[in-house]
Specification:
The structure is a single chain. This protein is α+β, with helices and mostly antiparallel strands and 748 residues long. It has 4 domains: 65-199, Beta-Lactamase (2-Layer Sandwich); 350-522, 2-Layer Sandwich (Alpha-Beta Plaits), CATH 3.30.70.270; 524-638, no CATH class; 642-747, Homeodomain-like (Arc Repressor Mutant, subunit A, Orthogonal Bundle). It is 60% helix and 11% strand. It has 27 helices and 14 strands. Strands 2-1-5-4-3 form a 5-stranded antiparallel beta sheet. The longest helix is centred in the N-terminal third of the chain and has 68 residues, at 5-72. It comes from Paenibacillus piri. The chain crosses the membrane at residues 12-32, 261-289. InterPro entries: CdaR_GGDEF, Homeodomain-like_sf, HTH_AraC, HTH_AraC-typ_CS, Tscrpt_reg_AraC-type_HTH.
Length: 748
Amino acid sequence: MKFNWRRRLLLSYLPVFFIVVTMLILIFFLSMSEFSKQEAKKANDVYVKRIIETIDSSLLFIEQTITKEMMSNDKFALFLGSEDTLTRYYNHFETSKVLFDLMRYNPLIDSLYLYRNSDQVVLTEKSSPLFEEFGDRRFLISLIEDGVPRRYTGLRMYKENAEAGMGRPVITLVKKMFPPFGNEGFIIVNVRLDSIRLIVQPMLDSKISHIDIFDQNGSFLFGESGRLADAAIQARPSATTMVASDYSGWVGNSSFADKSLFGLFSVISYVWMSIGMFTLIAGCIWIFYITRKNYKPIEKIMARIIHVSQNSSLSFVGKADNDEFKFIEAGIHKLIDQSIRYEKQNEENQIYRSKHFFQQLLEGNLTSGPSIWKDELLHLGFGRDIERFTVIVVELDKYSEFIKINNVKDQNLLKFIVSSVLKEICQNHSATVWVEWIDAYHLAALFPIARDMEAGGSIHQIGEETIRWVADNLSFTITIGIGSPTKRLEEIPVSYDDAVTALQYKSTLGNNRLLDLTEIAGKTDHKDMFKNLQSIRSITQSFRLGDENWKEEYAKILGQIQSEPIPKDDLIGMMNYMIYQLYQESTELSEELRRVWETRLPEFNAVLDQFDTVAELEASLFGVLNGTAEDMRRIRESKTHYQLIGDMKAYIESHFADPDLSLTVLSDQFELHPNYLSRLFKEEFGEKFIDYLTKMRIERAKKLLAETGHSVQDVSVQVGYTLSVSFIRVFKKHVGMTPGDYRKGIMT
């Protein structure tokens, strides 16, 4: 029986269709088993990650607590600083109390002690054993020889007494003391391994999986078996999950408790997958063979079409339908369509290629040789007599406002206008330029400078005209940074970096202008960049006490910043320091006042992210600071003892020079119990009465030393110290130098 063309195709493909589809259905259902297994593995991964995160959070809390205590508690300075015999035992006692409190408030801590390098003194929370008799002496020696580990150590055995047995399994955190005592000693914190295990033990007791925890050195710590620090236990080779901590380096291993849970289905799944793949490949070969055999009559015509498409640098794919005449017609149309499409694609590729080469030039990724790059520049219209190159960078001012008032379409249109205006102005000056947008709000332009061209004047004139045109015709402004000229292609990244650096000075020099780094460099001197830090500390102290003088200090420091060019990154760093100091001061206040700061912190960060110039920064930051001060003032005024606090503060300010002024005198004056006054003072001012009085006296003494010629003895009497020796000791403790040295430093 003879079949027509359609029936032959149908009978050829139907068997293949039924066989392949049947196998795919079988593979689908068997693959569901593998999918379930993978999902179970993912859930197990999440479970182990949760255990590791719980451990990390506990260890991180201990590290943060120790770091905070080291930064804020001056008892460590008493232990590490120079001391005489009379105060040594008292200092040791005070410091050991701090260690004891740290252990009491952190139950995970097994033990901790301080070590002083100068005389090998060890101080624990209980005693100060001799270094030769200290049980952890070998560990201290390894710290001195090998250096302090970055994070927690691995598993080790700790014993305080050298004659003790094996010791207790712990992990250890070692911290160097902060400047100026960074090289004088360490604080060693030992964390109990069994305490950490108790935190995660409920999660380890899983009936589905076995979970073991190892340290960064591969030593076993604990697991679902309940054993602790057992060296005989190794990582299970059949572990399905291994999760490593980025913080501690610990590794969590997990494997299924029932190993045969998915075993049978896995084997079946792999077998049927193999059979299915074989069937699919066989079906493809069958289809290919039958198709080739049935298309013999039109093969020559197809070959001819393909031959023509290859000769015209086009590729032909697909077919119209099963009618050979329509196939030929569709092939011709396809060739025409492809020709048009490739022509458009080639134009687009030229644009992307140009932008890619430009980015490589700015980044210094010259993978090709200089001759190839010069040919590329010639292709872009650059001449052969190029002597130097200069890069300028155009920055959109107040970009946050720009994206708020313009949608994406308008933004792209305005950026196109800016680049087109720059090109047109360059044409008016007979200057060649290569312009590309390198990010959302930066446009870079490369100027080739020929031998007979004046580089600086022409580029400055082009930049000034572009700035004026944008300011007069568009709703925003631009600032242009000019880099230094370079003689070689390889040095173009240097010119680009200079242009970007020049834009950093926009915050202090102002926007809507031209910034040339060669001109700015002669006006800047960053040796005294941090000279305002003392003023910042004065602002924070006045702000904490509710003293309105902070506004005057704030205006003064912002005026000093605006008077000299400072890069934006340095300015942001200085402001971040001020915000950090304000926040640290707020931590000493009452809970209500601290809550005001926590609420306002996002506003401070938003100001630093969005400002363009120092004037904007001054206005915006002052608004947030003033609002915060008003909130704190309202809270203080709402309290019944607000008037009492004000009277106490005024009395102290007028009588601080009285050597007999004390908390007892203050309680007699206001007819209140000393303990009540002490607690009230601490809540409102964030520090003890004696600390507040001492700071006031020291600040007054510094002013007298700087502005008058009075002797140290006279100054000590004027600020409330009858004995100059006591005054000198207190002054050196708070300022870091004697009054005489302080006066010499001010004079020089």
